[in-house]
Amino acid sequence: MSQNESIANITVREILCGTRTFKDVSPETVDVLIEKSRQLVLPAGQTLFHAGESYREVVYTLIEGDLLIHKPNGQHESIQPGDFIGLANYIDHHDYLSSVHATSRSLLLVTDAGIMHRLEHVRRDFFDVVNRVISTRLRERNPDRSISAGLLAQPVTRVMKSPVAYCGPETNLREAFVTMKERRIGSMVVKDKRENLLGLITYAGLAEATILENSRPDDSIMTVACEVPQVVEPDTPLWEAEDLMEREIAKYAIVCEGNSPIGIVSKTDILQLLVARPSMLSKRIRAAQTIPDLATLGGKLVDAAADASETNRRPSAAVRLLSETHLMLQRRVVELTLEWMKNKGHGQPPADYTVLIMGSGGRREMLLNPDQDNGIIIGHAADDQIKHVGEWFERFGKRLNRNLDKVGYALCPGEIMLRNPMYRQSLSEWKKQISQITSKPTVQDARWANVVLDFDTLYGNDALTTDLRRHLISELRRKPGLLKLMAEDDAEGKPALGIFNQLVTTRDEKGEHIDIKRNGLRIIADAARIFAFQNGIPLQNTSDRLNALVRVGKLSDDFKNSIQEAYEEMLDLLLHHQINQVAASKEPTKKIKIEKLSPKNRSTLRMAMRAVKRFQDQLQDEFTGEVF
To answer: Considering the entire predicted model, what is its pTM?
Structure first.
């Protein structure tokens, strides 16, 4: 390349730092990328690579010029300066599926894959930008999940709070705080005298201004605490508003007519609408009077799964709603079991208690074939009542496990159930067991913990559950050795990727398949659990844990998004796989046959598995000092 054909490094840095890809990357990191790469001129009319060509072990970055990517579906897309080219191939080491053509003379950076790996390892901002691209690519590759019917297809005016609380631009921090405290609200919009929207203030914004920015109480909100809000129109579907808030990490969206705010909607408002939505199945569950009736309704859960999938854009939200139906069904089993105890002359529970649900149920991540993982915490009993209390709950536990099995929740092969005395204990006994395990953990304890410690209240006094969880987190913070063994146990499961990042399948008499849960979803859930415990986060749901890890600074937002999108992709595949299996009168499984996947789905799943591996690598690097 002649000197005239290349651009000075300082000019390249200025170009890249001004692009959407590198806007949050430090100039120092961009300089290192430039220094470790080489420049390539691609004349107009030439092709960078063709679909079907072998991966070249490099990543290209457009500096200037015009490139078109020709996708397998026939669509064309312009590549912008700063965009990576071939990043998906760097991630999954697969042959090029698209072709890239220059429509004008173009200048590119060419970075060897080894340099990319080293930059990701030593430069956090570069690691984040790669994750941002991964999450964007996964989101783009996902099937169209727009919703045309159901609750989320309704306009935001269905749930918005109106009239919206507001203040003027002359308001200071003290006045805004007092107003929000008196009205018990978490946000206010800022309007001018003509009713035009100027911004949004929140409790979090006020706290940041006063604590982190050392702002004074009489400082103007416009200069120290006013945020740029996410804005939607009154006819915006709820799913679009929810997607906007998810994408922009926003808790609120302002509903405007023109530039005048008429209401405010939050992610919580949308979730409450879905959870509170009455359905024929939920009404029938509440009205059921016998275990056989509930068994019949259990066979209708596939309808709840299909409905949840059709009315929720994000598979994780659909699975959470399906889980709520599962829990409703199981709670009714508990109620009927209590009635049976009373009718048989055993009376009411002789002590305070809470029935625990563990594993996927505790995380609100149940699909169509969960087995039983449950236990019970028994409250305080007088010394002369301990024997009677123990006998009562033993009888109740055995009956409840039997009834849940009749309804369709198979008995746990590992006996993690109420009928096992190990999972039917007083609060003090539970605490003692957790203290012993965290003090001298074993490999078996770690395997046990990766199921049992995702516990939550199914039925009864939630205060007992909260007390036990508080004790658990306190013990893990003081004695983190168990977390290291849990991380080592997680390493026993590997993402379904081979040495060249090809999808790895398992063969049985029914053909080749991938266990989406064992080799994908479980790895994400394990890592999120361990990091959550490490950081004192009391949440159970995997998505909630990932978001909390961003809030405490453990994960960057870009890294979290890449993990979340991989999680959504695998959940989507598995949920639809199980719905189709039940519709075909087959037993639902977590194994997907590789031949059932389209080339696009295989490519997307490879990228999702690569994101899983990156998350597992971070967990192993931190807790074991090894990267797998």
So the answer is: 0.76
The residue among 197, 81, 92, 38 whose CA lies nearest residue 609 is: 92
CB 610 within 8 A of CB 621: no
Q: E strands along 451-596, which residues?
A: 456-460, 506-508, 511-515, 591-593
For 260-307, the pLDDT digits (tens) are 999 999 888 887 776 665 567 888 898 999 999 999 998 889 988 888
Q: How far apart are CA 440 and CA 437, in angstroms?
A: 5
Q: What is the DSSP letter of 282?
A: H
CATH 3.10.580.10 domain range(s) in the chain: 154-273
- CA 484 to the chain's CA centroid: 23
Q: Reduced to 3 DSSP states, what percent helix, strand and coil does the chain have, rounded to the nearest 5?
A: 50, 15, 35
User: Quick one: tokens of 228?
Assistant: 């740029």
Rounded-to-integer distance, Cα 403 and Cα 337, Å: 8
Which CATH class name applies to 154-273?
Answer: alpha beta
Question: Distances from the Cα of 361 to the Cαs of 169, 216, 424, 510, 531, in angstroms?
Answer: 47, 47, 18, 29, 20
From-to residues of CATH 1.20.120 in the chain:
490-623
> What are the angstrom distances between the C-alpha of 299 and each of 114, 295, 296, 305?
52, 7, 5, 11
Whether 350 contacts 385, CB under 8 Å = yes
Q: Where are the beta strands (DSSP E) in 324-399?
A: 353-357, 374-378
446/483 Cα distance (integer angstroms): 8
List, in order, residues 6 or more apart from 111 with CB less than 8 Å away: 33, 36, 37, 58, 59, 60, 61
pLDDT at 203 over 90: no
| The three-state (H, E, C) secondary structure of 173-210, written as one string | HHHHHHHHHHHCCCEEEEECCCCCEEEEEEHHHHHHHH
pLDDT digits (tens, 9 = 90+) for 165-188: 899 999 999 999 999 988 888 889
* Neighbour-count burial of 585, counting CB atoms closer than 10 A to its CB (0-12 exposed, 13-18 middle, 19+ buried): exposed
Q: Where in the chain is the domain with CATH 2.60.120.10?
A: 9-122
Across residues 56-79, what is the average pLDDT?
89
For the segment(s) 279-478, the CATH number from 3.30.460.10, 1.10.287.470, 1.10.3720.10, 3.40.50.970 is: 3.30.460.10
Helices in 408-441 by DSSP H: which ranges? 427-439
590 neighbors 522 (Cβ within 8 angstroms):
no
Cβ-contact 456, 356 below 8 angstroms: yes
| Average pLDDT value for residue range 437-462 | 92
Taken in order 217, 220, 222, 223, is the CA torsion positive or negative?
A: negative
Which strands sit side by side in the sheet containing 106-112, from one edge to the other? 38-42, 106-112, 58-64, 84-85
Say if residues 190 and 198 touch (Cβ distance below 8 Å). yes
Fold for 9-122, please state it.
Jelly Rolls (2.60.120)
Q: Under CATH, which architecture does the 490-623 domain have?
A: Up-down Bundle (1.20)
Residue limits of CATH 3.30.460.10 in the chain: 279-478
Query: Which amino acid, residue 247?
Result: R
How far, CA to CA in Å, does 454 sit from each of 136, 159, 263, 334, 450? 30, 32, 38, 20, 7
283: helix, strand or coil? helix
Residue among 510, 511, 547 at smallest CA distance from 528: 547
Indicate the angle between helix axes 522-534 and 481-490, nearest 10 degrees: 170
